[in-house]
Amino acid sequence: MNPPAPPPRRAALQALAAWACSAAAPAALAAQAAAGEAPLTRPIPSSGEQLPVIGLGSWITFNVGTDRAGRDASFEVVRAFFEEGGRLIDSSPMYGSSQPVIGEALARLRHPAALFSAEKVWTGDAAGGPRQIEATRRHWGVQRFDLMQVHNLLAWQQHLPMLLEMKAAGRLRYVGITTSEGRRHAEIERVMREAPIDFVQLSYNLLDREAEQRLLPLAAERRIAVIVNRPFREGALLRALARRPLPGWAAEIGCSHWAQVALKFAVSHPAVTCAIPATSQVAHLRQNMAAARGPMPDAALRRRMAEAVAAL
Amino acid sequence: MSEWWSTWLSYRPGDFLMFAPRTYWRLFELVNTAWWPAPLAAWAAGAAALWAHTRRRAAAPPAWAGRAALAVLALAWACTGSLFLWQRFAPIHWVAGWWAGLFGAAALMLLALALRRGAWVPESARGRLRVARALGLAALLMPLLAPAAGRPWAQAELFGIAPDPTALLTLAVLLVLRPQALWARWSMRGVWTLAIAWCLQSAATLATMEAWEAAVPALGAAAALWALGSRRSR
Predict the structure, then answer these.
(1) Residue B125: helix, strand or coil by DSSP?
(2) Does A280 touch chain B (CB under 8 A)?
(3) A201-236 exposure pattern, b = at least 16 Cβ within 10 A, e = fewer
(4) Which residue is closest to A152 within chain B, CA to CA?
(5) A2, A225, B30, B222: which has the fewest C-beta neighbours closer than 10 Å?
(6) For the residues of B81-121, what is the DSSP string, one character each?
(7) Rounded to two decimals, what is the model's pTM?
(8) Which residue of A has its CA nearest to B93?
(9) In angstroms, rounded to a whole number, what is the distance separating the alpha carbons of residues B27 and A53?
(10) Cα-only R_g, chain B
């Protein structure tokens, strides 16, 4: 028995709704389509393990000390991060109370299996590196870290061999080095050429593109994963763009916010593995994670994006 | 070497700011809420201490009033160092831990000045009195900065538990004391140095946060240094 035909008024309303949906802005449609997608992943070259292209940084945002309200807000951000399919969380002993705040959030979430823990050793005392790493491990409450990086190349000649020994002993999985704001790129390049590191972390965004010249091609050549820090220039880029309307090409790649434009630019470089924007707000976290979905700009659009933002 | 220099010269003050401004201002709300109404009582004690040393008078104030005022200052530095700097600020800014120790040292020097008779006499120079009153008033009015900046009253900085007004009011009182013993001179210099240094680093921190409130500790330190220099030049 066939279902009865819809009454004329309902049919008209259905047709009107269908027309409205088809006339919706491309960005909204793209966003709708993307919402159900898993985030785009990239492989870690040394192992093939897949990482979502958007991770989570913790510089300043999670340094809330003993403030219960601040810690609860940080917990909500971490929870939303895992809900959105995130994996890599990055921190450092330099970031004040960020480490225990992350540890508390992970404990409240019962240590999600998806976590990819990325930490740093940051001490000029070569002998103090293992002690600092152990203190960091206790803050996080993990058995071992996935990735340990030498922060801003501090005492890297001593720490890097130590980290490689830890990796060989199975006490961590990957080894890396970091820099930021374009500092010491020559030294970073030397380490990338000479040491068997798995990751390099550096600054790369729509305005700070020096890494495109040598470090990103070298990372691809040496099969080193790249983590991008400061994708927003610590918010300065977004503040400068906030009052500008999004260009038409933003809708082509499913972007409804400048933050998504900035992130898609960074992670669409073929050598980049993931970016680690930091935020203290769940709404911004979800905006950031949406950049891991939908179409990515190709090389031509990336050039247009950089030129357009530079002109602004 | 040139790369080393260029690396360090590339750092901006903001690169050393480890916390968000909203986290910083929340510290005052947390400490005020935790200890209320003690911060209000501390503020009142500071006002009394300032009045004891800078009131209009034909004769010197009684010695016990001056020593009690210094004891109030000692307690203020001890409380600020432990309750604010150590318990609240140090978890987000490791330098605050060191400052907590220095505030403790200042508290001990002020306590010695309070307990030892004959360590100081009141300074009667009118110019210094005027500067002292202005500095003290600025310290007592600092709680108004929070609502003026659009922040809640709970984030007000109060003498006796917040470092900026504590340092400023202490500079005001020290301006109107003349040491009578070598140890007293060095103790006062020690507290002076710490108070000025705190005001300058606080001004630098607030300026890095792009907070206009940076002007208060900066101008306070400048006024105190000017007044101190004007005495020595006579």
Answers:
(1) coil
(2) yes
(3) bbbbbbebbebeeebbebbeeeebbbbbbbbbbbee
(4) B7
(5) A2
(6) IIIIIIIIITTT-HHHHHHHHHHHHHHHHHHHHHHSTTSEE
(7) 0.88
(8) A96
(9) 35
(10) 18
Give, for A19, the enclosing helix (H) or strand (E): helix A8-22
CA angle A264, A267, A272 (to 5 degrees): 170
- pLDDT tens, position by position, B123-153: 878 888 899 999 999 999 999 999 999 999 9
Q: Which of B3, B23, B87 sits opposite A63 (nearest CB)?
A: B23
Burial class (CB in 10 A: 0-12, 13-18, 19+), A150: buried
User: Which range (A48-52, A144-148, B65-69) has the least confidence?
Assistant: B65-69
Pairwise CB contact (< 8 Å): B18 & A181: no
Distance CA B230, CA B234 (A): 7
With 0-12 / 13-18 / 19 or more C-beta atoms within 10 angstroms meaning exposed / middle / buried, residue A252 is middle
Contact A65 B7 (CB under 8 A): no
Judge: A64–B92 Cβ closer than 8 Å, yes or no: yes
Contact criterion met (CB < 8 Å) for B23 and A67: yes
Handedness of CA B57, B63, B65, B67 (dihedral sign): positive
Cβ pair A97:B92 closer than 8 A: yes
Alpha helices (H) in B116-208, listed in sequence order: 126-141, 145-148, 163-175, 182-208
pLDDT digits (tens, 9 = 90+) for A253-299: 999 999 999 999 999 999 999 999 999 999 999 999 999 999 999 99
**Backbone Cα Rg of chain A:** 22
Q: How far apart are CA A56 and CA A81, in angstroms?
A: 8
How many whole angstroms from its chain centre is CA B58?
29
Shortest distance between the Cα of B27 and any Cα of chain A, in A, equals: 8
Per the document, the length of chain B is 234
Instruction: Give B150's strand partners.
Output: none
Dist CA A276 CA A295 (whole Å): 19
Chain-chain contact of B3 with A95 (C-beta, under 8 angstroms): no
Helix/strand/coil for A275:
strand
Mutation target to probe the B interface, by most B beta carbons within 10 A, among A58, A59, A64 is A64
